[in-house]
Design goal:
With about 450 residues, the protein is mainly alpha-helical. It has helices spanning about 1-10, 10-25, 30-70, 80-90, 90-110, 125-140, 140-170, 185-195, 210-215, 220-235, 240-285, 305-320, 335-340, 345-350, 350-385, 405-415, 415-445; strands at about 75-80, 115-120, 175, 290-295, 330, 395. The radius of gyration is 21 Å and the shape is globular.
Length: about 450
């Protein structure tokens, strides 16, 4: 536990190279190739975090200005995912989540109920957050751990099922995204996308980045789209000309730099992925491929995700003021909207129009969920001695505080026996389905 705590405390940019280097060596890669791959991924994460930080630093103040100009009187403050992560790891569930998560992943791999090796240990905090909420609501550590386990099992299956599409549409070979926040929106996206397919006229709207670029020429390029949307956000925030131009160029840069940083990550991951496939072919000739489970940050750079996200930033602020029942003031987590959309994009096949519709629905529902869970969220923060912002009666976050999967698990677990039974049926059903799907793929490989 002390070793794991130390590694996690180093942060993702240090933790990932260590874990990937060890994993590469275990899979039979040479030391030089393993350590080079690990360091390349670490450098890619640093670059990605720098760009995301730039995005947050510019979007955050702009959003605050938009809120002030609209005069919204909302008393639940969005304090962002860093606070939610800190609160999660500070809980009793958080203290046990890493060994629990590793045990679940190992058991699922051994029983062939997952194909994802989830090395994204830092993001186990998403599962801890679910468990901490349940533990606080039921006053039971055991129920909290059960909730975390069920959350992780569901997300692992979703990572497997979406892995092939993530490979194809995000250009991430051998990678899946067992991310507790991003994966939660995949079932919603599938349902809404099917509904759109049944609507005449609407179903035929093509708005993928490539078609936009062909139709609008230079104005369809990611850097131009980002710059234009950034200028609109700056104008809505009431910035002067200098400020409007600065945020415009910054947003344009983000749409160009994030995919480049993700490409660097892939450069480091490909040798590890190849070693994993060789290992599987040698040791388990009838086993289908393995995925390396990573933070969904590697997928947010898709042009469809970023373009839709920038449009949804001012839309989210507007929604907060007009949505009946909402009391959450979006702020710190506006920059995580790309994380909400990144696993929706493979479902919509990069269609910006469909991604926008699904994102709008998810955010609308998410604000109501965040409002509903705010009392428990605030209680966890108080227990963790987190400072509540001045002027706020409660706190919330978009990342996981507005997560529909977390909310469903929480409310079902509050009913105890009934909820545990229903969630167990869902989890076991998904695991069996995933096992059978893997066996079918194994048969096709053997044939």
């Amino acid at each position: 536990m002390k070793v794991l705590d130390f590694i996690v405390s180093l942060g993702a940019s240090v933790m990932m190279p260590i874990i990937l280097t060890i994993l590469g060596l275990l899979l039979g890669a040479k030391f030089g190739k393993a350590i080079r791959s690990g360091l390349t991924v670490g450098i890619g994460f640093i670059g990605l975090n720098l760009v995301i930080g730039m995005l947050s630093d510019n979007l955050g103040p702009a959003a605050q200005q938009m809120v002030e100009r609209t005069g919204l009187n909302l008393t639940i403050i969005d304090v962002g995912w860093p606070a939610a992560a800190a609160i999660s790891f500070a809980s009793k569930v958080g203290a046990l989540i890493i060994p629990l998560g590793l045990a679940i992943n190992i058991v699922m791999l051994l029983t062939r109920t997952t194909r994802t090796v989830n090395i994204d240990i830092w993001n186990y905090w998403h599962f801890a957050f679910t468990g901490a909420l349940v533990s606080a609501a039921t006053n039971s550590l055991v129920l909290g751990l059960i909730a975390s386990a069920i959350d992780m099992i569901i997300v692992m299956v979703l990572a497997d099922l979406t892995g092939p599409n993530v490979e194809k549409f995000n250009g991430l070979p051998g990678v899946s995204l067992p991310h507790g926040f991003s994966a939660a929106y995949v079932p919603i996206a599938i349902v809404i996308n099917k509904i759109i397919d049944m609507i005449p006229g609407i179903k035929d709207i093509e708005a993928d980045p490539e078609s936009l670029q062909q139709r609008f020429g230079i104005f369809g390029e990611p850097m131009i789209i980002g710059t234009i949307l950034g200028i609109i956000i700056g104008a809505l925030a009431g910035y002067d000309v200098r400020g409007v131009l600065n945020i415009g160029i910054t947003m344009g840069a983000a749409l160009v730099l994030i995919p480049k940083m993700a490409a660097m990550l892939m450069e480091g991951l490909i040798p590890i992925s190849d070693a994993a496939q060789e290992f599987i072919q040698k040791k388990f000739k009838t086993q289908s491929k393995l995925f390396i489970g990573l933070d969904s940050a590697v997928a947010i750079g898709h042009p469809a995700s970023m373009a839709a996200s920038l449009v949804l930033v001012p839309v989210t602020v507007f929604l907060a003021g007009v949505l009946p029942g909402n009391r959450v003031l979006p702020f710190a987590d506006l920059a995580v909207i790309p994380f909400m959309l990144c696993m929706i994009v493979p479902v919509t096949k990069g269609n910006v129009f469909r991604t926008l519709i699904i994102g709008f629905i998810c955010i609308s529902v998410g604000l109501l969920i965040a409002t509903n869970m705010a009392p428990l969220h605030t209680q966890l923060a108080i227990d963790a001695q987190f400072a509540i912002p001045e002027g706020a009666t409660m706190i919330a976050s978009i990342c996981d505080g507005a997560n529909p999967l977390v909310w469903i698990i929480l409310r079902l677990m509050e009913t105890k026996a009934i909820g545990i039974g229903l969630l167990a049926i869902v989890a076991v059903g998904l695991v069996i389905f995933n096992y059978k799907k893997g066996q079918e793929e194994n048969k096709s490989i053997a044939a």
